[in-house]
Recover the amino acids of this structure.
């Protein structure tokens, strides 16, 4: 899941929106039984899940396909999970994770399904409450099927009783702790949604900040945000080019027994070299993966 | 204590300032035996405590009334606590909390007083040192009588050997961790003082930042700051109005089976709805509580 | 080590740069066997260590002298440590500390050397990975010979997969947690390097931010950065003067039984007084220590 730049959510009770998935270039898609689907429609949406997933598979959907179930412990969670596991999906999104037991419970259900011969599914956990953030280091390492964490800024700030700003200093602590926990545990880290759905500039600024913090992708609420996320979480050609130049300079420095050298005004040694290698490597992998599609 | 927007401190050895409390609209008042009162005057101030509290009660002081004792373990703490508990107060403020044992000791003294028939008092703990911040998650859950935490930026930055700035990035980590611990434990969270006492703009900016982080109120050093804090930690009428419009739009969306909808340029679902409900609910409670006074 | 404002690194395989140390006013120097020295040159550099240290001592190097060994567990670490301990240094710099056992291992080697009659050496630990940051509170208190921690922003952001910006919000959490752990354990805290080696303004801004957070000094990559660090981590004469005025005003207030007083627009009490005392005290100690040199 480390190449997921865009994770597009759409409500499970809106088949017209879900059926557009195959025309959208998101790296991963989520059929949302939780916040996106009103209480009264959850049961009906659940009942249609298998059919809609079948439709998407028949259309040769590119990108991973997930179902977001309702919060574990809620009236819907068990039925949601059963319906999700009966469909041909790549994994489940579990919102508001707060305790390792929650994740292990889902993990056990997945393990049972695998024991019956199904292919392994992965879990994406939502860190979007005070308890989730406070316990995120333990949560990230609690369940081997966990493949990614996302940070939910709107839910978090609602839980703590604060307010959102464009700069986001009010969530910097929580957003930093979440990406640290995710990456340390080897998981993909997916950044907060931007609810200002018509404000491209805000999405770009927010995505840049997320990428700087270490996130590899972002929650998207609309197809337009998918385009922006794919762009912002890829390396610009000039960045990659600069990385290649830097690596060439490093090979030359090394041949001259120079371990730390001045490259375009910066002192380069171990960490900056590793970063350039990661950048160039990711660009090459993305290019390969695009070529495959 | 969740409606405390303003917590006004005044030195225990300045009766003229204390006697003005009944004319000030603070949500809570603190008679300060700690930093506000010079060493040489602490004993005399303590001896007058009961009388001054009696005066304030006779004047029908609105708002909660607290006494801040000196740091536990200091030469004054025990005598301070005894004097405070002999007066008709609503609780004690304990500065520089660092270990659960400190709070449990104060809690035991309060429990003893209650066992003798007095009404329950609450504790406000000051998180204002490196140890306090590092252990704040455990501190917040260590004593059932704890009703609130305040974050003391000046003391914290003195302890760590840093410097204060208007933007406050130097305390963002500590201030974020403290509000998280407080709100997660169900406590009120009170934000740092602004020592620039003639700079309204700075107070407003600092209060806005505190509110965004999740704080519900702020330490005040002067009556003017009380006015500003009450304003900044209340919702502006246009915010409340917008919240009511949003909730109306949500009812309509729900009736149309739409779980996530576009409202004035924002994609609204669970968390933003909850926040609007909290905002409107708080505004209504504040209105009710003002009506009672 | 609490007076280390500048910690200058130079590659162990570049004797011409190392031999300039005695002409530079850094508070501490590091001969770098790790990132600064290419893999192929590490063994040769190690073999020359004793000689270069001898040269520097013969030149009456002012300031502390350290050797940075390679990461514990790497192929070089043991030989590095042996070579370092055979030379007349003041301590070892251990990069990428992540587990208390790493530090205790180094500590044991130092203890053995002391038992054989050598003078005590100290350890400077590098916090520059996700695990280092996540475990920094435990690391800081794990080994009595640990005298300082430095925060390595470039390595940290490489490890987490993020990107560096001039403002540094992407490392604020990690940088804040590291200084908190160091200062709480009584260690010196040394701030991140600035790799933009020709950008004085950026170095100054970054140093100011570090000082505000509580760091007492900074990693330096070039002699020019040493000058800037020494300046930025000393108090400006007007700051010290202001501190002396404030302390005089406090003595007067105290004589008048006033515990909290208005000084040039700020309400002064305990923490601000302590900070002024620390500022004036540090300025006096720095003056004394300069006089000694």
């Amino acid at each position: 899941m480390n190449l997921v730049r865009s994770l597009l959510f759409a409500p499970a009770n809106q088949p017209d929106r879900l059926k557009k998935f195959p025309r959208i270039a998101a790296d991963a898609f989520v059929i949302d039984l939780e916040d996106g689907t009103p209480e009264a429609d959850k049961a009906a949406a659940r009942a249609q899940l298998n059919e809609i997933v079948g439709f998407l598979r028949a259309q040769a959907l590119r990108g991973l396909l997930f179902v977001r179930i309702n919060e574990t412990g809620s009236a819907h969670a068990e039925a949601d999970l059963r319906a999700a596991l009966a469909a041909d999906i790549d994994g489940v999104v579990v919102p508001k994770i707060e305790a390792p037991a929650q994740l292990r419970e889902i993990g056990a259900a997945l393990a049972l399904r695998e024991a019956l011969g199904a292919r392994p599914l992965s879990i994406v956990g939502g860190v979007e409450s005070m308890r989730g953030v406070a316990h995120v280091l333990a949560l990230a390492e609690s369940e081997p099927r966990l493949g990614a964490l996302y940070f939910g800024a709107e839910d978090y700030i609602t839980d703590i009783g604060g307010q959102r700003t464009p700069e986001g200093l009010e969530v910097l602590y929580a957003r930093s702790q979440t990406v640290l926990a995710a990456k340390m545990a080897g998981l993909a880290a997916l950044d907060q949604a931007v609810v200002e759905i018509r404000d491209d500039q805000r999405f770009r600024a927010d995505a840049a900040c997320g990428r700087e913090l270490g996130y590899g992708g972002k929650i998207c609420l609309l197809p337009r945000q998918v385009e922006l996320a794919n762009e912002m979480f890829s390396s610009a050609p000039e960045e990659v080019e600069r990385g290649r130049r830097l690596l060439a300079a490093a090979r030359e420095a090394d041949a001259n027994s120079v371990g730390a050298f001045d490259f375009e005004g910066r002192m380069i040694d171990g960490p900056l070299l590793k970063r350039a290698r990661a950048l160039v490597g990711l660009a090459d992998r993305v290019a390969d993966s695009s070529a495959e599609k």
Remarks:
- The longest helix of chain A spans residues 270-292.
- Residues 90 and 225 of chain A are 22 Å apart (CA to CA).
- Chain A has a mean pLDDT of 93.
- Chain A has two domains: 6-232, 237-292.
